[in-house]
Amino acid sequence: MTTPPKHLQPEIEAKIDALLSQMTLLEKVGQLTQLGASIVGGFDFTAFMENPDPELLKDIQRDFHEDWIKEGAVGSYLGVQGADEINRLQKIAIEESRLGIPLIFGLDVIHGYRTIFPIPLAEACSWEPELARQTAEIAAREAAAAGLHWTFAPMVDIARDARWGRIAEGSGEDPFLGSAFAAARVRGFQGDNLADPQHLAACAKHYIGYGGALAGRDYNTVEMALQTLYEIYLPPFAAAVEAGVATFMSAFNDLNGVPTTANRFTLTDILRGQLGFRGFVVSDSNSIGELVTHGYAADRKDAGQKALQAGVDMDMVTESYRWGIPELVETGELPLEVVDEAVRRVLRVKFLLGLFDHPYRSDAKMESATQLRADHLEIAREAARRAIVLLKNEQGILPLKENIQKIAVIGPLADSAFDMLGSWSFTGSYKNAVTILAGIKAATEAEVLYASGCETNAQQPEDFSAAWEIANQADVVVAVMGESARMSGEAASRLELGLPGNQEALLKALKATGKPLVVILSNGRPLAVPWVAQNADALLETWQLGLQAGPAVADVLFGAYNPSGKLAATFPYAVGQTPIYYNHPNTGRPAGDFWFTSKYIDGPVTPLYPFGFGLSYTTFAYADLDVEVDAAKITIRANVTNTGGLSGEEVVQLYLADPVASRVRPVKELKGFQKILLAPGETRKVTFELTHSSLGFYDAELRYVVEPGQFKVWMGPNSAEGLESEFWISRELLLG
Ligand code: BGC
Predict the structure, then answer these.
(1) How far apart (Å, rounded) are the C-alpha atoms in residues 120 and 291?
(2) What is the model's pLDDT at position 3?
(3) What's the rounded Cα separation, in Å, for the pair 333 and 313?
(4) Which residues pair with 316 in a beta bridge?
């Protein structure tokens, strides 16, 4: 891995020294300044949001402050698209600025550039980090061909609260699974060599604790024990550093009273001191300006000083550094070394990207030849079908049988191309998406009847008669329900977690026809849908699957693909349970029949579907769990057998618990997983090896410790089921 190394490259450091010695203060601050293209034309955003037609974007007039480039007063742009435009601006920097330092162009390429893949939460449900590596690599290829150098991804925030809309952008609730996906996506975006023009610099965001927003409300304050920070929220960021991530983004939230964009403890002590990160940190959009709103800085200048001194190297869009830092340095309030160090980090990434030697990494021809390639779409379909989670399948109603003559496809999301793309998909076009209805029609010879039935989120009662009529004519009803693309993602927290609008009422009407009811959910977060779980004959969670949603759903519906996804986040039974996650402590009074226990009086304490849950068209049995402990490791083995009649994949999950410790520990923690393919009747011995150090935790003094004693272990199909055993680790064994 050649990306921001733990060991610096002396030639690059020498080049940086040489440049730094020639730079004026304004040029230095320029490297720390990222501008967003501002819109100067009469572009109607409201109309665009109503009808997000990419054609409309062509008419936008943008102002790039080109005079700033000539002055060397800008180091980066956010939001510029297209190789021609990027090269045009780059040329100004190279040819018309005094030192010719290249610009770095960044954009939110989150789950695809033109080829839109499933939302990240969906991809995590495949439990196949390698697949996420591939989709990130394709996203990088397309975006790099469009002239970009840098993506603001992966988003590696742990999310335990489904109300938080940004749960869609990450890998769910678990630090172990999240770390595997964080590392895979960094590798995918960056490849082995940042200088390779088919890759991008990645950005681990939002550092840190952003997903812990109180009440699931975006941007809300975060309070958490530092042990929780270290054990739950930090590991995916640490994995990203380990994988060589080039940049980090600070977050919007405050953490225990200190905004994460001005938090020296997290940005410097942990990130650079403990994790050894050598790339640069960019603020989130306007998060430096918001230090004033938080009540942490008096004005923009104060905000800039606090952010820079804490360890935020680049200011995204507020121009706080540009307008505040020179004066602070000149008056001696800010040491020049702080500025120099930040500039060094930014230049280091530019050198690693090879921008000094090859500032124009693509052109328009390369750009158009690289988008939406057939092989990219093929992976998009593969990633999409592997993200689908089968939650229920009564009497094996799925896959749909060949003797079915008429299928009624009903629901507001059945034919909604735009909603299949999910949040952060503005670089793609819904015009290239295949809807679920289109996918079904293309895959079957049965007659397909269609009615949208209702709107996604209507506030008034609606007439269900068209849907009712076709349901009555059909052999099976396939109802496609869920959330619109804009109901998850940034600033899209929800108070309720049920199906919005009249959707559940429509499902009740469809159920009343007595026809078999297959419900396909399309949404960006776990939903609390107990009525649906109880009344649907089959239930598929398909998330927002991207351009190939239709073919992927059809593959699963008709059995061309046997579903293998498992939930990466717990599905609550009711919104009142949130935040809900499997790796919680036991409490002194776990829920039970006794009145004075940790329970609700009006509903269950258990989730609708636990973390790790997902069915297959075949069945698996676990047997012969065996644990062996020696001085070097713990070996855990079990036999997994495909007991059904179809080939299928199972995600074998390994959980551990430390039942007696000096700090209360979670009831279970994921420590390993393997996805295996088994033919009918086939048995495979699945083996996990754990080091002793993987049994540890942060004690009351925040020291990482492994305590001797008893450990429980489970191997099974999800976080709530599995074979259970135990083992002991003695003090002598730990001391080796
Ligand atoms: C988001 C970031 C994103 C940035 C730039 C912010 O509002 O929080 O995730 O990268 O905008 O678009």
Answers:
(1) 29
(2) 57
(3) 18
(4) 34
pLDDT in tens, 595-630: 999 999 999 999 999 999 999 999 999 999 999 999
Question: Which residue, judged by its Cα, is nearest atom 2 of ligand 1?
Answer: 284
Return d(Cα 577, Cα 584) in angstroms, integer: 13
Tens of pLDDT, residue by residue over 60-87, are 777 889 999 999 999 999 999 999 999 9
Q: Using alpha carbons, select from 609, 573, 569, 603 the residue that is nearest to residue 392.
A: 609
Bridge partner residues of 683 (DSSP): 641
Q: CB within 8 A of 14, min separation 6: which ones? A: none
Residues making up the chain, counted from first to last:
736
Residue nearest to atom 12 of ligand 1 (CA): 108
Bridge partners, residue 723, by sequence = 715
657-666 per-position pLDDT tens digit: 999 999 999 9
Say if residue 126 is exposed, middle or buried (CB neighbours under 10 Å; 0-12, 13-18, 19+). Answer: buried
Q: Which are the contacts of 170, defined by CB distance < 8 A and separation ≥ 6?
A: 120, 121, 124, 155, 156, 157, 158, 159, 178, 211
**Contact yes or no for 200/247 (Cβ under 8 A):** no
The residue whose CA is least distant from atom 8 of ligand 1 is: 284
Given ligand 1 and candidates 108, 119, 166, 169, which is best to mutate, with the most ligand atoms within 8 Å of its CB? 108
Give the C-alpha separation, 160 to 579, whole Å: 6
- Closest to 407 (Cα-Cα) out of 354, 374, 443: 443
Dihedral sign computed on CA atoms, order 380, 386, 387, 389? positive
State the alpha helices, DSSP H only, in 151-289. 175-190, 226-228, 235-242, 264
Contact 541, 391 (CB under 8 A): yes
Burial of 35 (0-12, 13-18, 19+ CB in 10 A): buried
The CA distance from 140 to 200, in Å, is 6
| Residue 285 beta carbon below 6 angstroms from any ligand 1 atom | yes
3-class SS of residue 719: coil
Contact 209/222 with Cβ under 8 angstroms?
Answer: yes
Domains and their CATH numbers in the chain: 10-20+105-367 (3.20.20.300), 373-577 (3.40.50.1700), 620-735 (2.60.40.10)
Q: How many beta carbons lie within 10 A of that of residue 504, not counting itself?
A: 17
pTM over 0.85: yes
707 lines ligand 1 (CB under 6 A): no
CB of 415 sitting under 6 A from ligand 1 = no
Q: For residue 315, how far is its CA from the centre of ligand 1 (angstroms)?
A: 12
pLDDT beneath 50: ranges in the chain:
1-2
Q: Taking Cα atoms as reference points, which of 28, 22, 19 lies closest to residue 328?
A: 28
Q: Name residue, tokens 């079915």.
A: 404
Q: Do the strands 538-541 and 517-522 form a parallel or antiparallel pair, or are they unpaired?
A: parallel
Task: Please give the Cα distance from 616 to 565 (Å, whole number).
Answer: 8
Catalytic residue numbers, as ranges: 284
Check residue 736 and give its pLDDT: 76
Does the C-beta of 284 come closer than 6 Å to ligand 1?
yes
Q: Are 424 and 113 in contact (CB under 8 A)?
A: no
Confidence (pLDDT) at 62:
77
Taking the C-alpha atoms of residue 171 and residue 193, their distance in angstroms, rounded to an integer, is: 25
- The secondary element (H helix, E strand) that includes residue 672 is strand 669-678
Q: Tell the residue nearest (CA) to atom 7 of ligand 1.
A: 285
Q: What's the number of CA atoms in the CB half-sphere (13 Å) around residue 228?
A: 19
